[in-house]
Task: structure prediction
Amino acid sequence: MPQSSQSIPSSMTAVLQSDYGDIDVYRTGAVAVPVPGPGQVLVRVRATSLHADIWHAMRGEPRILRLMGGGFVRPNQPIPGTDLAGEVAATGPDVDVFRLGDRVFGQALGWNLWRNGGTCAEYAAVDAVRLERIPQGIGFPEAAATATSGQIVLQNLPLEPVVDGCRVLVHGAAGCVGSLAVQIAKARGAVVTAVDLPPKLDSLRAIGADQVIDGSNVDPTEGSVRYDVVFDVLGIHPLGRWRRVLEPTGHYILIGHDQYGSCRRTVLGSIPKMLSLALQAPFVSQKVLVSPPKLAEPPLKMLARWLESGAVAPQIDSVLALDQLPQAMRRLERNEVNGRIVFAP
Ligand SMILES: NC(=O)c1ccc[n+]([C@@H]2O[C@H](COP(=O)([O-])OP(=O)(O)OC[C@H]3O[C@@H](n4cnc5c(N)ncnc54)[C@H](OP(=O)(O)O)[C@@H]3O)[C@@H](O)[C@H]2O)c1
Result:
């Protein structure tokens, strides 16, 4: 039976993206509150976060994203944002797992995040299967900041080899994805080496990294230590170099970071890099991961458990109003953000 709270208005405030381009494509305006369809939940959004893929959807780059559901000339979905935390305000037909008022977090989109997901708004209609209850004691900003980055980690990092005492290296470890990879590997008992830039090395020790490397000074693909897993957020070194520090049966995982345009991969982004890895994979002894690992339970459930136990605690840079998104995006582009920027609609 569809259910809804009495107090849902007919219109809401949202960030609206009219075109692809610079931060002036955004304005804040009023639009109709979405109606949850079958299997969907209407969430009163209390927090949503800013991350690299929202930048891609703003620019419409790499251009291939326009053919991957983003919208050819302008965004198909005008409201940016992929992750959210909030309260269930209504449920559509066929939803019986959530009740009105439940505190939930999750992601509005599935595998392809190079498009707008509609969460930078007061309300968002999201498939119930993409949501999970927020554990007691965890705030909306922390939950929203974990949903997308945490799922990216779990959709790429195979957990079976990450066991007590195994050696994991995370490259780009202080970023939103990397810092959760460090914490998840630590929660599994791994010995973690974290590589990032000097201002962030102390924060990496604070989240449990056993060893930190200044990537501006030291080449992490050289040295005598051999790793069981390399989790490479940045993708600036080729596989051949990483193999020098990987165990013969180790795992290499590439996330890939286009560095807000400075890599100039404006047409295909990291896709050629991924294809090249897939072609090399059969010819190397290490496992080069090009397909998602199988998980014993849904990633959001795991993340909720780790949030509750304190094993995962995302760093929040700031909590801002929705209309501050353009300025926040500028800070993200300039690498001035320390942790996650969260919006509270
Ligand atoms: N975060 C998400 O939720 C999310 C969502 C969708 C997709 N992704 C994918 O994941 C990728 C990474 O996202 P992210 O949010 O984790 O990025 P991020 O926050 O920018 O993290 C990258 C980290 O690497 C550091 N770094 C830069 N150059 C380095 C070097 N030479 N050696 C060592 N460290 C270096 C950066 O430092 P500086 O900041 O000082 O440069 C930063 O701390 C994105 O490009 C995107 O494709 C992420």
Notes: The domain at 158-288 is CATH 3.40.50.720 (Rossmann fold). The first strand starts at residue 3 and ends at 4.
